[in-house]
Amino acid sequence: MRARRLRASLKGWGGVAAMAVVCALVAVFALYVPLSGTRTVDGQSVAQSARVKAEKAEEDCEAPEKQTLSPSSADGDTIQKIKNRQGDMRKLIVGVDQNSYRWGYRNPNSGKTAELEGFDIDLVHRIAEDILGDPRAVQFKAIPTDQRIPAIQDGRVDMVVRTMTINCERIDDVAFSAPYFKTGQQVLAPKSSPIKGYDDTLAGKRICTATGSTAYSTLKVDQKAGELPATADISKTVPNQLDCLVRLQLGEVDAVVTDGALAASQAAQDPTVELKGDAFTAEYYGVAMKKSANDLVRRVNQILVDYRKDTANGWQASYGKWLSATLGKISEKSKPPAPQYLRTT
């Protein structure tokens, strides 16, 4: 494994039947964002172009989690436009997940409305409260993993709060806040599987990742570099990360690679699977916004400063409510680093 890697690790709904219930709720309550098809340009697919771009971005970039703007409570043009929305439209429009257990999901046990809840959702409410004075002033838009950046660039959402890793490729396309969570890529597989982790035991195995995820990018780069067995099949990609768990349950894939924080929640949903081995990367979640929305980036960074300091109703309280059951007590493995701001303009 390369030098940058870090060697660092769950009772729930469980099983395909439970997934069917969740998927049914998703179908009823989804706020649909259209999927874009694969296009070709001069014979080269957009997906291939994206991979080339990702590799170049990684070469030219270091510490992307530090490349954000300093905090400010001032209102700029972006925030003023949000505040100027009238009537029922005066809401913060946020792209989220609705099927990542304990992060952003619709709890089927919460009644007919099955409202969104989770760690990411708590942060969204905090941002809305600060900007609009009402934590409920939010229009949630459920978006697939591979549509997070297009949704921001097209103006369909003001921001995305969806377990989105800050990485070198993405900072060319969107602006990120300072990190609000630390995690790393891990392998999820059936407890009975001979897979031991991110190593040679993945040889000949079918590995599922979400399209456009850092997991897929990592596998692609590592396989090209000879750090992942050449016989590992990494072609099994899906639009939404949870689809990987369903495919694993159906026996269509042998393993899932995703953020350890998400994998732990999925293991809590299905007691027949478990995390295999340690995290093999260090990654950070951030709030993603338009590149031009400097005032909104600064405001979110200020909100995060206050959110971390608020021990009663902020980051620590939300972690205790949603994540401690699957990730254990707060530790350096998940605690966001002290923010650093490289740009001041």
Structure notes:
- By secondary structure, this protein is α/β, with parallel strands linked by helices.
- The chain has 11 helices and 17 strands.
- It has a 5-stranded mixed β-sheet.
- A hairpin with a 2-residue loop joins β1 and β2.
- It starts with 14 loop residues before the first helix and ends in an 18-residue tail after the last helix.
At a glance:
By secondary structure, the chain is of the alpha/beta class. Helix content is 33%, strand content 17%.
What is the string of SSEs from the N terminus onward? Answer: HEEHHEEEEHEHEEEEEHEHEHEEEHHH
Helix content: 25-40%
Q: What integer value in Å does the Rg equal?
A: 19 Å
Low-confidence stretches: 1-58
Strand order of the largest sheet: 7-3-8-17-9
The rough form would be described as globular
The largest sheet, given as strand count, sense and whether it forms a barrel, is: 5 strands, mixed
* Oligomer class: single chain
User: What's the end-to-end separation, in Å?
Assistant: 38 Å
Number of strands: 17
Q: Which whole number gives the mean pLDDT? A: 84
- Derived from helix and strand composition plus strand pairing, the structural class reads alpha/beta
Number of helices: 11
Please state roughly what percent of the residues sit in beta strands, choosing from under 5%, 5-15%, 15-25%, 25-35%, 35-45% or over 45%: 15-25%
